[in-house]
Automatic annotation (TrEMBL):
It is a multi-pass membrane protein. Belongs to the tetraspanin (TM4SF) family. CDD domains: uroplakin_I_like_LEL. This is Tetraspanin. Keywords: Glycoprotein, Membrane, Signal, Transmembrane, Transmembrane helix. One of its GO terms (cellular component) is endomembrane system. The chain crosses the membrane at residues 12-34, 54-73, 85-110, 211-237. It is found in: Endomembrane system; Membrane. It comes from Danionella cerebrum. It holds the Pfam family Tetraspanin. Residues 1-21 form the signal peptide. Structural component of specialized membrane microdomains known as tetraspanin-enriched microdomains (TERMs), which act as platforms for receptor clustering and signaling. Participates thereby in diverse biological functions such as cell signal transduction, adhesion, migration and protein trafficking. Regulates neuronal differentiation in response to NGF by facilitating NGF-mediated activation of NTRK1/TRKA receptor tyrosine kinase and subsequent downstream signaling pathways. Plays a role in the inhibition of TNFalpha-induced apoptosis.
Length: 242
């Protein structure tokens, strides 16, 4: 087996796997759209409250379609030895890599502003919408329960809020230790000193950064390998024609 044939086979098999994975993701999205109640039963409790409010079906279908199209283009380009499809596949992967790099750069550059930006969004929402908007309330309840935190910075984010005024000047149960024994009022909340959710989420993210970095490195390596294979096939075919 020559080098060209070997690369061609690898390219076909790799993109067939991508295509099948995309179909599986798309099928899961269709399942979530058609029978969301059954689909949500297999999702962990933390995501159950959040994703039940998000159109996870459409998200999965979109990702699945994109993966399937990319896999089909790469597979057909290699199998049919089509320079047009190979260069199209290469261009799509390059665009994806550029988008990922841009997102990473923006995240690094503006990471110092993250707390300010998030607080500007969270503070008014906790004051005006928590306890009133069901989606917003469920999202924060799920977050506070999962990370064992209270509000964005601490319990004072709820001081004078809609929830505070309409619940006998009490704070959400997550803001106090032993809320089933004592009412979660100012004294109990202050004594409990439950950490704000932003601090907890940052701590959780830092603990998982190695995993995230490993996944990102693996995805990047696969993308670079895919670009290298497609460009090799393209150059070989171009040289063969001349």
């Amino acid at each position: 087996m020559g080098c060209f044939t070997f690369v061609k086979v690898v390219m076909v098999v790799f993109n067939l796997l991508v295509c099948l994975a995309g179909m599986c993701v798309g099928a899961a999205g269709i399942w979530a759209t058609v029978d969301s109640d059954t689909f949500m039963k297999i999702i962990p409790p933390f995501t159950d409250q959040i994703w039940s409010r998000v159109n996870v079906g459409i998200f999965n279908i979109t990702i699945g379609v994109v993966m399937t199209l990319i896999g089909m283009i790469g597979c057909c380009g290699a199998q049919k030895e089509s320079k047009c499809l190979l260069i199209m596949f290469f261009a799509i992967i390059v665009i994806i890599c550029i988008a990922e790099a841009a997102a990473a750069i923006v995240t690094l550059v503006y990471s110092s502003y993250t707390r300010i930006i998030l607080r500007a969004w969270a503070a008014p929402g906790l004051k005006n919408n928590y306890g009133k908007d069901q989606i917003f309330t469920d999202l924060w309840n799920s977050t506070m329960t999962t990370f064992q935190c209270c509000g964005f910075s601490n319990y004072t984010d709820f001081s004078g809020s809609y929830y505070y005024q309409h619940n006998g000047q009490l704070y959400p149960p997550s803001c106090c230790s032993g809320p089933e024994l004592f009412p979660c009022d100012d004294d109990n909340a202050g004594f409990s000193s439950v950490t704000g959710c932003f601090t907890q989420i940052v701590y959780f993210t830092q603990r998982k950064v190695n995993i995230v970095g490993g996944i990102a490195a693996g995805v990047t390596a696969i993308e670079i390998a895919a670009m290298g294979l497609s460009m090799y096939l393209y150059c070989y075919l171009d040289k063969k024609e001349t």
